[in-house]
Design brief:
The structure holds three protein chains of three kinds. By secondary structure, chain B is α/β, with parallel strands linked by helices. Chain B is built from four helices and seven strands. Chain B has a domain of about 100 residues: NADH:ubiquinone oxidoreductase Nqo5 subunit (Beta Polymerase, domain 2, 2-Layer Sandwich), CATH 3.30.460. Chain C has 14 helices and one strand. In chain C, helix 7 runs antiparallel to helix 10, helix 10 packs antiparallel against helix 13 and helix 13 runs antiparallel to helix 14. The chains are: A alpha+beta, B alpha/beta, C mainly alpha. At the A-C interface, strand 1, helix 4, helix 5, helix 7 and strand 6 of A face helix 7, helix 12, helix 13, helix 14 and strand 1 of C.
C-alpha cells in the first residue's frame, strides 16, 4: 500500500533504521521503516543477529543434551520448548510417560505460560509508553514463579528439567504448597495489571484497530497462539490436538473478534486466568507419588529411524519440532518451528499504513523472543 | 569427526527413492496409492512404511491436483499417524494449490517447511500442512539434487512459506524459484554460497563430561 | 516584548537588583530542579512498588548531587555530521527562555523580580519560545529520530499553546487583568478553579503537553523515537535540556497555582507573612507536580494523531466555549453562581466527550470464550 501524495509538494519518503539497538525492538531485531511523515509506507524486517546455528548444533548433541539447547532458544517459555522436544523423542522411541511426570510437566508448563505472559504484559505496557509501571507490576510475579522453577530445577532461566520419558528428578516436598502460594500472587498481579492497563482510555485508544489481521490472513501467514486466536480462529493445540494430558482439564480458550493489538493483549490476559485454573486442576489431580521416569527406561537414548513432528501450545504459539532420525542417539535433522519466527513474518503486512508509534505497539503485541526467531 | 560418519551411512530411508525409481501410479487411482512401494526391498533397519488406507487424503489430493504421487505412506504424529506424500518437485505448486483450495482437503495452514540433507540422495523439502477446519494434517515432500536444487516457491500460495523458504535457502541452498525476495534472512546478506546446515559442514563432536561417557583421560592436563 | 521586558526593569530601584534576583533564582532553581528529580523518583518509585534512591545520603537525599556531578563530568559529544551552530545553540534556545519566565513570577506578595502589567501574557509568550530550540536540536543533530522528535515537539507545542492561551483568556475576562499579581489578588476569598473549572481542566491538560510530560511525551517518547531531540546529546548539554524541562514544569505548576488555586493569597489572605506565603506557593506547586508524576506513572503515551485531534477537536472548542460563557456572564452581568455552574457543566461535557473523541469507536464485543471440557479422566493411580 502506497500512500497518495501531493505531487505539488516535493515529498520524499524517509527511511528510518530502527534497531538492532532500540529500546522497543525486544532484543536485536532491526527493521528499516520507510515513513512518509509519520506514516509507514514500507517496512523491511532484518533478523538473524542472534543466529547461532542451533539446528546444526543440535545435530551434534544427543537427545539428552538437546533439551538444554531448547531452553536457550525459547528463553521465556523454556518448559514449552523442552516439552515439544521431549514429546518428539518420546514419540519416536514410543515411550510412555508416567502419570506424575505428566502432571508436573503440565503444571510447570502452564506456570511458564504465566511467567511469559507477565513478561509480555510488562513489556507491552512499556511499549505503549507507561513509564515502567506495568513492568514493575509484572516482574515481581515473574520472580515468584521463577523462584519455584529454581527450587524445582536448580536454575532460574535454563531449567533443562524435563527429560525424555519424564523428569530429571523429583520435585521438592513442598512443591504443591509453593505452587498454591505463587498462584495467589499471580492472581493478584494479574488483577493489578488488568486494573492498570485494560480499561485505560489511552491504552485502548492506542491498541484498538491497530494491526488488525483477518482470520484468513492470519491462517495464511501461519500465525499461531494468541495472535491467531485474537484474529478469531479458535485454534489452540491444547484443545484441538491435545498432547500430554491436556484432555483432562476444563478450561476456556479466549478468541478475539477484531484481530487487533488490543485483542491480542486481552487474549493473553485471559489465557493467564485459564492457566491458573489449569494449574489448580492439575494440582488437584496430581498423584501424590509415583515414578517420574518410565520403568523400562533405556540407559542410552536411541531412537529407531523415522521422523516426527511434535508441537505444543507455547505461550507465543505453536512451538514445533520436526525431528528426523536415522537411528542412533542424535537427531539427523532437527527443525525448530518457532512461533516467534512465523508470527514476525507477518509484521510487514500488519504495519504498513499505520503510524510509526503503532509499529512499536504491533511488534510488542507479537511478543517475540529474538533468540527463538533466529535460533 | 564429521557427524554423518558417526552414523551408519547405509541406514538411509527408502525415501531416497528417486523419482525415476518410483513407479508412477495411475492417476485415476482406483486402488489407494499403490504407487511407489519399493520400500519392501530396503534394509530392515529402516522405518517400516505403511501405505495409507484406501480413500485417504493422498488419493483425494492426487485427483484434485491431477498429478501422480511418487510415494505415499504413514508417518507418526504425536498421537496417531498422518499421511506423507512424495511428489516431483515440478508438481509442488499444483499440489499446494489443490491442498489449499480443495474443499475436501482444506489444508489452509502451512505449519512448517524444512529442508533435510539426505547426502547421497539429495536434498529434501518437507512441507507440513494442517487443516484448521478439518483437523487433519499432511506432509508433502519433494527431492532435488545438489546439482539442480531448484524447487518452485509456494510463497504466493502460502504467505507463511515466505520466510521459511528464505531460511531454507540460507541453510541448504535450495533455490525456490519464483520467490519474491530470496535474499538471506538469517545469514549475512553476502553469505550466499555457503550452506551451513548441509551435512558437508562437519561439526566438532561434543565431548561428554558426565555419566558413563566420561572417558579415561578425558580430563587430562586439567590439573 | 523587549519593551515589556526592559521598561519596568529600568524603572526599578536598580537594574542590578533584578539581575541579581534572576541569578539567585537560577541558582536556587537549579538545586530545586535537582531535587525535583529526587521527588519524582521517590514518588514514582512508591507508585511502582519500588523504593527509589536510598543509597546516597539519608533517604537518598544526596542522589541529585551525585547525578549532577556525574552529568557534569560526562563527555560532551557532538556528532561529526551535526550542524555545529544549531546543535550547540539549541540548548540555550530552550534553557534561557525557561529561566526568563521567573522574571514575572511572584513567589510571595513581595518576592517578585519585575512587576509587569501583562505578566500573564509574558509568561505564556516566553514559555512558548522553547519550540525553536527543539526544532534546532532536531535539525542540528543530523539524526532522523531527533528530526522526528523535533517536528513532533514543534507541532505539539504550537497546537497546545492555543488552548492554553484561550483558557487564560477566560481567566483574564473574569479577573479583568492580565497581571498574575492582580489575578492572585482577585482570589482572596474564592480561588478561580471554582469559577473556571473548564478553563482549569483545559489548562491542566495543555500544560502537561507544553512541558512534554507523559502522556504527552511524544517528542521524547523513549519507546518510539528513543529520546527524540535529546538522542545525540550527552553530558552537560543533555542535563541542561533536562533542567529546562523541569524548570518548565515548575513554571507551569506555579502558573496553575497562581491562576487557579489562588497562589499565596487564598485561603489565608496576604497578611500572613512571606514565610507562610512561600510555603503555600510551594505546596500548591508540589500538588501540581505530584499530579504530573501521578499521570506519568499510570498512563501510556498518546499517539501523534490522537494528540493533535485532542487539541484541535476537543480542547480548543471547549476553550472557546468557556470564553463564550464568560462573555455572556460579563455582558448580562449575571451572578457568579451562574458562571460557575455553567463552567462545571461544560467541564463535565468535556470529560464525557474527551473519552469518545480519543477512542472514536463503537463499543467492542468482548472476547468469545470457547469452553473445553475434559474428555479423559485422571487415572488416580500412583504406584
Amino acid at each position: 500500500m502506497v500512500l497518495e501524495r501531493d505531487p505539488a509538494l516535493d515529498v520524499v519518503d524517509m527511511p528510518i533504521n530502527m534497531g538492532p539497538q532500540h529500546p522497543s525492538t525486544h532484543g536485536v531485531f532491526r527493521m528499516v521503516l520507510v515513513v512518509n511523515g509519520e506514516k509507514i509506507v514500507d517496512l523491511v524486517p532484518h533478523i538473524g543477529y542472534m543466529h547461532r546455528g542451533g539446528e546444526k548444533l543440535m545435530e551434534a548433541m544427543d537427545f539428552r543434551q538437546g533439551i538444554g539447547y531448547c531452553d536457550r532458544t525459547e528463553y521465556l517459555a523454556q518448559f514449552s520448548a523442552e516439552l515439544a522436544y521431549c514429546l518428539a523423542v518420546e514419540r519416536l522411541m514410543d515411550l510412555q510417560v508416567p502419570e506424575r511426570a505428566e502432571y508436573i510437566r503440565v503444571i510447570l508448563t502452564e506456570m511458564n505460560r504465566l511467567s511469559s505472559h507477565f513478561m509480555f504484559a510488562g513489556a507491552f505496557g512499556v511499549d505503549a509508553g507507561v513509564f515502567a509501571t506495568s513492568f514493575t507490576y509484572a516482574f515481581p510475579q515473574r520472580e515468584f514463579l521463577q523462584e519455584v522453577f529454581e527450587e524445582v530445577s536448580g536454575d532460574r532461566l535454563m531449567y533443562a528439567y524435563f527429560r525424555v520419558g519424564g523428569l530429571a528428578w523429583e520435585v521438592p516436598d513442598n512443591f504443591v504448597q509453593r505452587v498454591h502460594e505463587v498462584l495467589v500472587h499471580s492472581a493478584q498481579g494479574l488483577k493489578d495489571i488488568d486494573d492498570l492497563l485494560t480499561k485505560n482510555e489511552i491504552f485502548m485508544a492506542r491498541c484498538q484497530n491497530i494491526g488488525s489481521f483477518s482470520a484468513q490472513r492470519a491462517i495464511a501467514y501461519g500465525l499461531s497462539g494468541p495472535m491467531l486466536r485474537a484474529s478469531g480462529v479458535p485454534w489452540d493445540l491444547r484443545k484441538d490436538e491435545p498432547y500430554s494430558i491436556y484432555d483432562r482439564f476444563n478450561f476456556e480458550v479466549p478468541v478475539g473478534n477484531y484481530g487487533d493489538v488490543y485483542d491480542r493483549y486481552l487474549v493473553r490476559i485471559e489465557e493467564m486466568r485459564q492457566s491458573i485454573s489449569i494449574i489448580e486442576q492439575a494440582l488437584e489431580q496430581l498423584p501424590p507419588d509415583g515414578p517420574i521416569v518410565p520403568e523400562k527406561m533405556p540407559r542410552r537414548l536411541r531412537t529407531p529411524p523415522g521422523e516426527v513432528y511434535a508441537k505444543v501450545e507455547a505461550p507465543r504459539g505453536e512451538w514445533g519440532v520436526y525431528l528426523v532420525s536415522k537411528g542412533g542417539d542424535k537427531p539427523y535433522r532437527l527443525k525448530m518451528r518457532s512461533p516467534s519466527f512465523c508470527n514476525l513474518s507477518a509484521l510487514r503486512e500488519m504495519t504498513i499504513g499505520h503510524y510509526l508509534a503503532d509499529a512499536v505497539m504491533i511488534l510488542g503485541s507479537m511478543d517475540i523472543v529474538l533468540c527463538d526467531v533466529d535460533r | 569427526m564429521t557427524l554423518p560418519e558417526g552414523q551408519d551411512p547405509e541406514a538411509t530411508s527408502d525415501a531416497g527413492a528417486t523419482p525415476e525409481a518410483a513407479v508412477p501410479a495411475p492417476a485415476a487411482a482406483a486402488a489407494p496409492a499403490k504407487p511407489a512401494r519399493p520400500a519392501k526391498e530396503v534394509e530392515p533397519k529402516d522405518a517400516p512404511r505403511v501405505a495409507p488406507p484406501a480413500g485417504s487424503i493422498n488419493d483425494v489430493l492426487a485427483k484434485a491436483a491431477a498429478i501422480t504421487l511418487t510415494a505415499a505412506y504413514m508417518v507418526p504424529e504425536m498421537k496417531g499417524e498422518c499421511v506423507a506424500i512424495e511428489v516431483a518437485r515440478d508438481d509442488i505448486p499444483a499440489v499446494m494449490t489443490a491442498a489449499r483450495d480443495d474443499s475436501r482437503l482444506d489444508l489452509n495452514y502451512l505449519r512448517c517447511l524444512s529442508g533435510v540433507d539426505w547426502q547421497d540422495e539429495g536434498l529434501e523439502v518437507v512441507y507440513h500442512l494442517w487443516s484448521i477446519s478439518k483437523k487433519h494434517s499432511l506432509q508433502v515432500k519433494t527431492r532435488v539434487t545438489y546439482e539442480d536444487p531448484n524447487v518452485p516457491s509456494i510463497a504466493a500460495i502460502y504467505p507463511a512459506a515466505d520466510w521459511h523458504e528464505r531460511e531454507t535457502r540460507d541453510m541448504f541452498g535450495i533455490n525456490f524459484e519464483g520467490h519474491p525476495n530470496l535474499v538471506p534472512l538469517l545469514l549475512p546478506e553476502d553469505m550466499t554460497d555457503h550452506f551451513p546446515l548441509r551435512k558437508d559442514n562437519p561439526l566438532q563432536e561434543i565431548e561428554e563430561w558426565q555419566g558413563d561417557n566420561l572417558r579415561d583421560g578425558a580430563g587430562e592436563g586439567d590439573e | 516584548m523587549t519593551m515589556l521586558l526592559s521598561a519596568p526593569a529600568i524603572d526599578m530601584p536598580g537594574a542590578l537588583a533584578s539581575v541579581l534576583g534572576l541569578v539567585a533564582i537560577t541558582l536556587v532553581m537549579t538545586v530545586g530542579v535537582a531535587y525535583a528529580t529526587w521527588y519524582e523518583r521517590k514518588i514514582i518509585a512508591r507508585m511502582q512498588l519500588r523504593l527509589g534512591p536510598t543509597r546516597v545520603g539519608p533517604f537518598g537525599l544526596l542522589q541529585p548531587i551525585a547525578d549532577m556531578l556525574k552529568l557534569l563530568v560526562k563527555e560532551d559529544l557532538r556528532p561529526a555530521t551535526a550542524d555545529p551552530i544549531a546543535f550547540e545553540l539549541a540548548v540555550f534556545a530552550i534553557f534561557i527562555p525557561s529561566f526568563l519566565a521567573f522574571v514575572a513570577v511572584p513567589f510571595t506578595a513581595d518576592w517578585l523580580i519585575s512587576p509587569l502589567p501583562l505578566s500573564l501574557l509574558y509568561l505564556l509568550a516566553i514559555s512558548g519560545l522553547s519550540f525553536i530550540g527543539f526544532l534546532m536540536a532536531g535539525w542540528g543533530s543530523d539524526n532522523k529520530y531527533a528530526l522526528l522528535g523535533g517536528m513532533r515537539a514543534a507541532a505539539q507545542l504550537i497546537s497546545y499553546e492555543i488552548p492554553l492561551i484561550l483558557a487564560m483568556v477566560g481567566v483574564v475576562m473574569v479577573t479583568a487583568s492580565a497581571d498574575v499579581y492582580q489575578i492572585i489578588l482577585f482570589q482572596d476569598r474564592i480561588p478561580l478553579i471554582v469559577w473556571q473549572p473548564l478553563g482549569f481542566i483545559i489548562f491542566l491538560t495543555a500544560s502537561i503537553a507544553e512541558v512534554e510530560r507523559p502522556p504527552f511525551d511524544i517528542p521524547t517518547g523513549e519507546s518510539e523515537v528513543a529520546g527524540g531531540v535529546f538522542i545525540e546529546y550527552s553530558g552537560i548539554r543533555w542535563s541542561m535540556f533536562q533542567l529546562s524541562s523541569y524548570v518548565n514544569m515548575y513554571v507551569f505548576a506555579l502558573l496553575g497555582a497562581f491562576v487557579f488555586l489562588g497562589g499565596w493569597e487564598w485561603p489565608f489572605g496576604r497578611d500572613i507573612g512571606w514565610g507562610y506565603q512561600l510555603l503555600l506557593t510551594v505546596s500548591k506547586m508540589a500538588l501540581f507536580i505530584f499530579f504530573y508524576l501521578w499521570i506519568r506513572a499510570s498512563f501510556p503515551r498518546m499517539r501523534v494523531d490522537q494528540l493533535m485531534s485532542y487539541a484541535w477537536k476537543v480542547l480548543i472548542p471547549f476553550a472557546l466555549l468557556q470564553i463564550f460563557l464568560n462573555g455572556l456572564f460579563i455582558v448580562y452581568d449575571a451572578p457568579g453562581v451562574v458562571l460557575a455552574a455553567s463552567s462545571w457543566a461544560a467541564a463535565g461535557g468535556l470529560m464525557y466527550l474527551a473519552f469518545h473523541v480519543v477512542r472514536r469507536g463503537e463499543p467492542r464485543k468482548p472476547l468469545q470464550m470457547i469452553s473445553v471440557r475434559a474428555t479423559a479422566v485422571a487415572a488416580r493411580s500412583a504406584s
